[in-house]
Amino acid sequence: MAGISVTLEGDNIQLAFQKGEQSTAVVMDPHAARSLVRAVSQLLAAIGESVGEEGEEMPEELVDVTSQTIDIGMDEHGMAVVALQAGAMPPFLLRLKDDEARHIAQSLLEILNSPRDARVSHGDH
Questions:
Q1: Longest alpha-carbon distance in the chain
Q2: Separation of alpha carbons 79 and 61, rounded Å
Q3: In the sheet where 3-9 sits, what is the strand order?
Q4: Is the dihedral of CA 125, 123, 50, 79 positive or negative?
Q5: Quick check: pTM over 0.85?
Q6: Half-sphere exposure of 49 toward its Cβ, with a 13 Å CA cutoff?
Q7: For 17-54, how does the pLDDT look when each residue is reduced to its tens digit (9 = 90+)?
Q8: Residue 79: which residues within 8 A CB-CB, separation 6 or more?
């Protein structure tokens, strides 16, 4: 099973994925994170799921998102797919299980809804 963590890196949000020995992490500004939350929430609503929460933490190497947009959709099996580009890496797709998509959406909402001073405090520790 893939591990997913969402953490603060200064004023940005880090989204990290690990499956087996492979790991990827991207850093998003608040605008990109809100777009991702909206898109994942819409996907969950489209498949009749509500947003829940589940926690895992796996910090990885940081790569800034360089896409002008983050595209969200579903694959042929109805799984959530996130398409973006990060740093010098080529564009890539992330396929998420329902519980993974819910975890990301809920975690990003909690971060974005917290006061700025709380975000900075948690991000610096």
A1: 42
A2: 26
A3: 3-9, 12-19, 22-28
A4: negative
A5: no
A6: 21
A7: 888 888 888 899 888 888 888 888 888 877 877 655 44
A8: 95, 96, 97, 98
